[in-house]
Write a structure and sequence with these properties.
The protein is α+β, with helices and mostly antiparallel strands and 316 residues long. It is built from nine helices and eleven strands. The strands form two sheets. It has a six-stranded mixed sheet with strand order 7-9-6-10-8-11, sandwiched between helices. A five-stranded mixed sheet has the order 1-2-5-3-4. The protein binds adenosine-5'-diphosphate and magnesium ion. The site of adenosine-5'-diphosphate has 9 residues, from helix 1.
Length: 316
């Protein structure tokens, strides 16, 4: 083990110290996307995400088509997280020589399906061979009106903490996959394999001045909300009895004796939007209020005696 005690976020903080500074109007490391101002009243949004066999997926469990979908989806989600419109992706693949040619064709069908759904062009990438495992990297570009990107650093005391959709479905789907029990709920398994990035919702939220901080939920609210709190210098009280839980999740949790709050807050990979909003804002989309932003920088879980964090690489 090269990095025994340090977590993913401490590691990023260390990398950040070496970053060559950008122009003052550019927003770099720390948000879901970098924000690069252009001259035409638009900002360019850029992000990149990697999927590694054995860390993010098991080749035997996910179909190439689902993996193609997911690789593009998790990147498009980072544009939605800024309130932006996704425009294009670049796809880099490192593949073992033993992979059948049909694997790439099926992978690209899934990648194309979601790209077409959101009118996102594939503009380039890189292809190389890997000694044994599949490595996928996608870079995504998007735009938003100048200065309108929703940052993690903009939460204000008194804001409501809100989420789109339901939480925990993907984590429950993963538990079923890992316990060889996919048949127990194909619906939850599908949520894990083929997340739906909240592009339309992100655009609407992006146009609301009362929506302050926003990000997408990739590691679980228990982890992701901490980024908003840290970057904004605020705290929050979250009511764990008000979490949006799907009927399917509640039913599987009853059947298996799983804790739905744990899955909803620490599970991750929901790719829903987590945002903070002034109480009088009306964003015109369905959402659930799960708590409030406070001046006191603590994170308090109401309705539960335990703490919740999320997934963090290297810390397992
Ligand atoms: P997300 O979950 O939205 O993809 P991450 O938690 O992966 O975001 O990353 C947090 C921030 O750190 C992002 O702004 C990302 O661009 C930046 N980041 C992560 N790894 C690196 C790296 N190796 N070099 C530079 N920036 C990085
Ligand atoms: Mg993100």
């Amino acid at each position: 083990m090269i990095m025994p005690k340090i977590g993913e976020f401490e590691l990023i903080d260390q990398i950040r110290k070496y970053a060559t500074p950008a122009t003052p109007s550019t927003i770099g490391i720390g948000d879901d996307c970098a924000v690069i101002p252009q001259r035409d009243g638009l900002d360019t949004l850029v992000s990149t995400d990697m999927l590694i066999e054995g860390t993010h997926f098991l080749k035997e469990d996910i179909t190439p088509r689902q993996l193609g979908w997911k690789s593009a989806a998790v990147n498009i989600s980072d544009i939605a997280a800024m309130g932006g419109k996704p425009i294009a992706t670049f796809l880099s693949l490192a593949l073992p020589k033993t992979l059948p040619e049909t694997w790439v064709q099926e992978f690209m069908e899934g990648y194309r399906d979601i790209s077409q759904k959101h009118c996102v062009a594939l503009l380039g990438g890189d292809t190389t061979c890997s000694p044994d495992r599949i490595c996928i990297n996608v870079a995504v570009l998007g735009t938003c009106p100048s200065g309108s990107a929703k940052l993690r650093s903009a939460a204000l005391p008194g804001d409501m903490v809100c989420v789109t959709g339901t939480l925990g479905d993907s984590a429950a789907g993963l538990k079923l996959i890992l316990s060889n029990d996919k048949a127990a709920s194909p619906q939850l398994v599908q949520k894990h394999y083929c997340p739906l990035p909240r592009v339309q919702e992100g655009l609407l939220l992006g146009s609301c001045p009362g929506v302050h901080a926003m990000m997408d939920i990739s590691d679980g609210v228990g982890s992701d909300l901490r980024h908003i709190l840290k970057e904004s210098g605020v705290g929050a009280v979250i009511d764990t009895d008000s979490l949006p839980l799907s009927a399917e999740l509640q039913s599987i949790c009853r059947e298996k004796g799983w804790d739905p709050k744990q899955l909803a807050l620490s599970g991750g990979e929901d790719y829903e939007l987590l945002f903070t909003m002034a109480p009088d804002e009306k964003p015109g989309i369905p959402y659930t209020v799960i708590g409030r932003i406070t001046k006191d920088p603590a994170l308090v879980w109401k309705g539960s005696s335990r703490d919740f964090d999320g997934y963090q690489c290297f810390k397992e």
